[in-house]
């Protein structure tokens, strides 16, 4: 049977950023915390902690902490733990949701002490985090629930192909067709990002031939503004740039709607239920209806 005192030590080391501060928070000696971690690893037969500065959880450690946080939330709901005890929620979501709409939903007035651990993954692969048991909930593009999980449709982010006026002048574009764009420099978030590929394939059957990888939502927008390439950006992210003429829609009649879904475990704590309901409320007023 799992000894949660050992898992508590792991949580403290990661939360406090080291063994010394973890020992202080648990009112233990540093050697006692170290022994608990070693005992936990002996019981599991694998490492739970990378001894880096600061320490990092292994995949097994992450799964264990996810389970530990669920247990703590259920205990809090049953009145078995202190109301002042801080709870953590580990979420996976796509970078564009984080950059545009979802942060409003993370404000939980009834739980001011909750800590969020946000994991950024492309909307096409974020569900893998749920399958691995690494996160408590996930926003991604898949409508298929994982085993033991449930899924809620949130809405869609609408993307448009945009570029700066300097980019348009450089390549002598007035109203660019998707076929023209296929050969021009385009921005792609990372190797998992297939939005530009989907857009071109949908409207002209082509694939992008000249790609710049830019794994940052803010950096992606700045690269577009600088004229490094064109890119698929969510309408929500560039309203001001459109209004000021710093970005131009290359094909105003064309767009790409990406559906988003909230995935959660069926054994949902009251805290996660409140978070889900709040995410749904914000999504309803912000995203496109599916």
TrEMBL record:
InterPro entries (alphabetical): ArgP, LTTR, LysR_HTH_N, LysR_subst-bd, WH-like_DNA-bd_sf, WH_DNA-bd_sf
Signal peptide, first to last residue: none
Keyword entries, A-Z: DNA-binding, Transcription, Transcription regulation
Domain HTH lysR-type residues, every copy: 2-58
Record's keyword annotation contains Transcription: yes
Gene3D superfamilies linked to this entry: 3.40.190.290, Winged helix-like DNA-binding domain superfamily/Winged helix DNA-binding domain (1.10.10.10)
Coiled coil: none
PROSITE patterns tied to this protein: HTH_LYSR
Similarity comment text for this entry: Belongs to the LysR transcriptional regulatory family.
Identification of the protein by name: LysR family transcriptional regulator ArgP
Gene source species: Rheinheimera marina
């Amino acid at each position: 049977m799992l000894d949660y005192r050992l898992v508590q030590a792991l949580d403290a080391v990661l939360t406090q950023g080291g063994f010394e501060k973890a020992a202080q928070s648990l009112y233990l000696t540093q050697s006692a915390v170290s022994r608990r971690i070693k005992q936990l690893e002996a019981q599991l037969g694998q490492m739970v902690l990378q001894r880096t500065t600061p320490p990092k959880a292994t995949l097994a450690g992450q799964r264990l902490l996810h389970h530990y946080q669920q247990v703590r939330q259920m205990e809090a709901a049953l009145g078995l733990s202190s109301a002042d005890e801080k709870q953590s929620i580990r979420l996976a979501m796509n970078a564009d949701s984080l950059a545009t709409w979802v942060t409003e939903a993370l404000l939980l007035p009834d739980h001011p002490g909750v800590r969020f651990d946000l994991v950024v993954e492309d909307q096409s692969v974020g569900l893998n985090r749920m399958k691995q048991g690494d996160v408590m909930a996930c926003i991604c593009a898949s409508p298929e629930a994982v085993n033991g999980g449930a899924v809620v449709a949130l809405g869609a982010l609408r993307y448009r192909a945009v570029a700066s006026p300097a980019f348009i002048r450089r390549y002598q574009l007035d109203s660019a067709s998707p076929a023209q764009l296929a050969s021009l420099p385009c921005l792609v978030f990372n190797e998992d990002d297939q939005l530009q590929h989907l857009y071109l394939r949908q409207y002209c059957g082509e694939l992008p031939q000249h790609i710049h990888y830019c794994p940052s939502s803010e950096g992606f927008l700045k690269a577009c503004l600088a004229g490094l390439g064109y890119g698929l950006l969510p309408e929500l992210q560039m309203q001001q740039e459109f209004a000021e003429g710093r970005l131009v829609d290359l094909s105003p009649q064309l767009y790409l709607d990406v559906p988003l879904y909230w995935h959660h475990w069926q054994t949902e704590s009251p805290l996660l239920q409140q978070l889900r309901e709040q995410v749904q409320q914000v999504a309803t007023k912000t995203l496109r209806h599916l």
